[in-house]
Design a protein that fits this description.
The longest helix has 36 residues, at 231-266. The chain is an alpha+beta fold. Helices cover 70% and strands 7% of the residues. The chain has three domains: 1-39 and 140-307, Multidrug efflux transporter AcrB transmembrane domain (Multidrug efflux transporter AcrB transmembrane fold, Up-down Bundle); 45-127, 2-Layer Sandwich (Alpha-Beta Plaits), CATH 3.30.70; 309-450. Helix 1 (13-34) packs across helix 6 (164-187) and helix 5 (129-157) runs antiparallel to helix 6 (164-187).
Length: 450
């Protein structure tokens, strides 16, 4: 790795940060324009499984079924375990599922169109939209719970590197990996289903392991050099030291996934391909975020903390509150942005389950949600940066007031669309903005007494 010997990772931080930001913008625009392929497990509908012999053209099967005009249909193939029976799955996206007459029509149409293939109905089941929504929410709970556990674990393990702030940096880097996995499913039109959730959780575990190794190396070097090297030098050294191991372990796993993806493509095993290929791209992303982002975020924070403070700022009464609110705000905004994006991929499901009382397109609703989350991230970062700057107290107070206004507007929209049960979320959404203003007011009063 001679190329990396004199390469300054931190010095090129702007490039490394801009790349995922641009990717996020492209993914959002692509999703708004072309939508996402969402599995029946989330949207609701009917899944029919047929056995057959010989060779079948899935495109022709889809064309035959679409002529019946029973709604959008998705065709996938597979094989039964421990037998030579070939299977084909026919999935219809609909609110109420297909009736018995419609199921019979599909079976009769396929039997007539492909008489030499011995097509037989093996199984059929209906999935209601409400069941799909509950399954989707359970997956989101698992996703958020994993994020929280990762933050707590890293915060406790790396107290010498900053504790909770280190956990936040790992979360930010991890969010990029999740976004990359989402982009693979969106761009390659892979169905958002339980496999998607499995890939996301697997990538989170693999990527956080690489990040922990890097942080371990930074901690060891920090102890070894005992203040003789700057945070920037420590991270560059640690990245070079862990580079070979990170790439080697990733290459071995990626090679297996690549072979698995190729075999799945050759034999048309979509279930395996939908897992292996996104995992492969996610592993590559994990190397990028570990080496280029995790340590860089930590250096940016250390250099910010190292800036000299005036005596007045050092004793700013609202400093602790604003720092805490800022860190929590970044964590919640990061999690919410991912949840909102996942919700954006399930707009059809929301149309079926949640009445659109206001008459506004769900796309507009989610664009507004993204804007609110983006503002929350901005306000949280400003709170951290200016927590000890008394001269910025009035500016932070204004940001806090805007945050309360947006939280109220968003809460009202939730109540109108979902019902009064959504009102319980309003106090939770108002808690951080109120603390934000409280910390800003304490600094503002101290600034007035100078």
């Amino acid at each position: 790795m001679k190329i990396m010997k004199n390469f300054d990772i931190v010095e090129n931080k702007r490039v490394f940060i801009i790349i995922p930001v641009v990717l996020l913008a492209v993914v959002i625009i692509f999703t708004l324009v072309f939508g996402a392929v969402v599995s029946i497990e989330f949207t609701g509908g009917t899944i029919m499984t047929y056995s057959y012999t010989g060779e079948l053209d899935f495109g022709q099967i889809k064309s035959e079924i679409e002529d019946l005009d029973f709604g959008s249909v998705n065709i996938t193939g597979g094989s039964a375990f421990n037998t030579d029976i070939e299977l084909i799955n026919v999935a219809f996206s609909s609110n109420e599922g297909l009736s018995a007459e419609q199921l019979s029509s599909v079976t009769a149409r396929l039997a007539a169109a492909f008489p030499e293939n011995g097509i037989m109905l093996e199984n059929s089941q209906n999935v209601s939209p409400s069941t799909g929504l509950r399954f989707f929410l359970k997956c989101l709970v698992a996703f958020v719970f994993a994020f929280i556990l990762f933050i707590i674990y890293i915060a406790l393990r790396f107290k010498k590197l900053g504790g909770w702030s280190t956990g936040v940096f790992a979360l930010l880097a991890l969010s990029v990996d999740v976004m990359v996995v989402v982009s693979v499913f969106i761009f390659f039109r892979l169905p958002i289903d339980a496999i998607f959730m499995a890939v996301v959780l697997a990538i989170m575990g693999y990527s956080i392991n690489n990040t922990i190794i890097l942080y371990d190396r930074i901690r060891e070097n920090k102890t070894l050099f005992a203040g003789k090297r700057s945070p920037r030098q420590l991270v560059n050294l640690s990245v070079r030291q862990s580079l070979t191991r990170t790439i080697n372990t990733t290459v071995t796993t990626a090679a297996a996934l690549l072979v698995l993806s190729i075999v799945a493509m050759i034999y048309d095993v979509n279930t395996i391909l939908n897992f292996a290929f996104p995992m492969l791209i996610g592993l590559i992303s994990g190397v990028y975020t570990t080496l280029c982002l995790s340590g860089t975020f930590w250096v940016m924070w250390q250099e910010f903390k190292a800036k000299p403070e005036s005596p007045e700022s050092r004793n700013a009464p609202g400093k602790t509150i604003l720092n805490a609110v800022g860190i929590l705000g970044v964590i919640f905004a990061g999690i919410n942005s991912i949840l909102i994006f996942l919700g954006l991929t399930n707009i059809e499901l929301l149309d079926d389950v949640v009445p659109n009382v206001m008459g506004l397109p769900w796309h507009f609703y989610y664009l507004f949600a993204f804007a609110v989350v983006g503002y929350s991230i901005f306000a949280s970062i400003m709170a951290i940066i200016h927590s000890a700057v008394l001269e910025k107290a009035n500016f932070l107070k204004t940001l806090g007031i805007i945050s309360i206004f947006l939280a109220v507007v968003f809460g009202i929209m939730d109540v109108i669309e979902i019902g009064l049960r959504a009102a319980v979320l309003l106090p939770i959404n108002l808690a951080l903005p109120i603390l934000y203003i409280h910390g800003a007011l304490k600094n503002f009063k101290a600034f007035g007494r100078r």
